[in-house]
């Protein structure tokens, strides 16, 4: 049985040009219509298995928060149905369930009861909640004196004081400081290992890739993509980079496992990508080897100083290293229509042992978000094997030295 089941979930709002027309429409029993229908969600269907972690991504206004509000009972759907099986803890809008005039300690008691925790259990858990939140004497101060980060600390501490069967989190954690975010993610990972089902909304690709087994992309209320976090985020990246009506997103199956995403206006296209060592094509290197990444591109219209970028990802899709000609100070200059040019990046691969993929892009200025000509995901793959270095663990080799002081 699925822990969460969503079937054809739809939500619409009525938008009126002025308030009094809402009253006229109500009095006329809908014979007069003045409202405009705003569809926030349309036919959303998915299910989540016990212990699975699913990330919901999409641009602002895509319907992510509305979906979570429906599933936590704070908003009613227009059509469709959903079923949640198990005890739920939800962290949605900042301070939801907190009263600004009550102290943090008082709010813990009220919020805990809203979550279904017995009063005696809240009293027993209070020292642990205080210790995890780390807000010191503010626990006995009114919530209105808290910063947004402190509110997140306390809300998360209460919501996760007892391991829930289902944990639903909206963007709230993005407000907290880096130290507390690490604490939160460690607790979430621990819950996941113990069998908690996670539904997670975030704009942070690293968090989605790290925590989630699957990702769902929403766009204008529609569910447009579902798959592994890496595949969905790559497609989302292409959607975000769109800047003209001539923009295209192409999905094709490549020689490697998974989906290869190419996107861009095609004013400039990447024609070839090569991994080289001593001038020879390679697919396997040893730790610390110096390699060259050669990128050949062609302009199909006249462009000034295009930027060429590279990005190495590990097998989980985590970003390992990226740079481009803009940041490295290389001015490519004017590229005339039909002209081909080649850029070569040289770098030592002080990476951990494993498989990596290479993403290559050509765009305007310092980022593909400014104007994407061609984004090529999984343009090449590379395997790093042990070399002559000392044994080590981790994602990179730092050539450490050690000495004994007496």
Radius of gyration: 26 Å
Give the name of the CATH architecture of the largest domain: 3-Layer(aba) Sandwich
Q: From N to C, what is the helix and strand string?
A: EHEEHEEHHHEHEHEEHEEEEEEEEEEEEE
Coarse shape: globular
Total individual domains: 2
CATH class descriptor name of the largest domain? Alpha Beta
Structural write-up:
The structure is a single chain. The protein has helices at residues 19-27, 64-71, 104-114, 119-133, 148-159, 178-193, 205-211, 229-240, and strands at residues 4-15, 36-48, 53-57, 79-84, 88-91, 166-169, 197-201, 214-219, 222-227, 248-253, 259-264, 268-277, 280-281, 284-286, 290-299, 303-304, 307-314, 319-324, 334-335, 340-348, 354-363, 372-385. By secondary structure, the protein is α+β, with helices and mostly antiparallel strands. The chain has two domains: 4-229, Rossmann fold (3-Layer(aba) Sandwich); 243-385, Distorted Sandwich (Coagulation Factor XIII, Chain A, domain 1). The strands form five sheets. Strands 10, 11, 14, 17, 18, 21 and 22 form a seven-stranded mixed β-sheet that branches. It has a six-stranded mixed β-sheet with strand order 5-6-7-3-8-9, with helices on both faces. The protein has a four-stranded antiparallel β-sheet with strand order 13-12-15-20, with no helix packed on it. α3 (104-114) packs across α5 (148-159). It is globular, with a radius of gyration of 26 Å. The chain starts with a strand and ends in a 21-residue tail after the last strand. Mean pLDDT is 85; it is low at 243-249 and 252-258.
